[in-house]
Amino acid sequence: MNELFYVCVKILQWLGAVTGTTYEEINIIVFVIIGPIVFFLLLIALIRCKFRVKKQNDKIISN
Length: 63
Hints:
The chain contains two helices and no strands. By secondary structure, it is mainly α.
C-alpha cells in the first residue's frame, strides 16, 4: 500500500512540474475539483442508464 501511495505522489509531483504548479495545487485540482465532478457525472450516467433499462424492460413486457 505504501508503494502505491508513493507512486501516486510521484505522479502528482510530475504533473506539478510539467504544469508549473505545486504538488499541493495538483492534489487539490485532482481530488477536490476533478474527483467530485467525475463522481457526479458517473452518477448521472448510471441513473440515466437505469431509466433506459427500465424503459426497455417495460417495452418488452408490454409486447
